[in-house]
Design a protein that fits this description.
Layout lengths: L1 H20 L16 E3 L5 E3 L10 E3 L8 E2 L13 E8 L7 E11 L4 E8 L9 E5 L10 E12 L3 E7 L2 H15 L2 E2 L2
Parallel strand pairs: 4-11
Antiparallel strand pairs: 1-2, 3-9, 5-6, 5-10, 6-7, 7-9, 8-9
GO molecular function, one term: DNA binding
Family: Belongs to the PemK/MazF family.
Keywords: Toxin-antitoxin system
């Protein structure tokens, strides 16, 4: 009886160290059914990343396939994502292989009752790149870095898939993004 108890105790120690460190064993995921990454929360409990769980995952969409998107400035700091707000969610990498990272996205319009369209943001400089538009710095970046909006990559973000509202982009900078998207894809941009 002593040996099985030591084995169980050793396995529990290993599992606890994994949960405490925030690491998980690699698991295969598919593009249409990503696996949830476990990260350490503010308590000792492990939680799954918002935006990565099947059903409420953030999903990349081909922008050219969307015909009737109305880009309208309508921020409302109510916990739900609205056009003109920058929110944080898990965003899949371009390879669409189940990997991704938590990042800010700019909400540009409503897709359905529980999903919005958003474009991803980055602090990596993209000067002279026609797919990126500089929007300057803001409170969404704790380091005050210049941010760029990727107008070529569109995402569908579920309301339950966002981690937090980060900021409201001012109307002028949002208008620049709306004009760039409207010019590229023919979407209507309301003033």
């Amino acid at each position: 009886m002593a040996k099985p108890n030591r084995v169980v105790s050793a396995l529990l120690d290993i599992l606890l160290s994994i949960v405490r460190s925030g690491r998980t064993p690699e698991r295969a995921g598919t593009p249409d059914r990503p696996h949830a990454r476990i990260r350490r929360g503010s308590t000792s409990d492990a939680v799954a990343d918002p935006g990565r769980i099947a059903g409420t995952a953030t999903v990349r969409i081909e922008p050219g396939s969307i015909r009737d998107l109305r880009i309208e400035y309508s921020p409302d700091r109510d916990g739900a994502p609205d056009a003109g707000e920058i929110v944080w969610t898990w965003v899949p990498y371009e390879e669409n292989d189940g990997r991704g990272k938590d990042r800010p996205v700019l909400v540009i319009g409503r897709q359905s009752a529980d999903r919005v369209y958003a474009v991803r943001m980055t602090s990596k400089a993209h000067e002279r790149d026609r797919d990126f538009l500089s929007i300057g710095s803001g409170s969404w970046d704790s380091q005050g870095r210049e941010s760029w909006v990727d107008i070529e990559q569109l995402y569908s973000v579920h309301e339950k898939g966002l981690r937090r509202e980060a900021a409201v982009l001012d109307r002028s900078r949002y208008g620049s993004v709306a004009r760039a998207l409207s010019g590229r894809y023919g979407w209507s941009a309301a003033g």
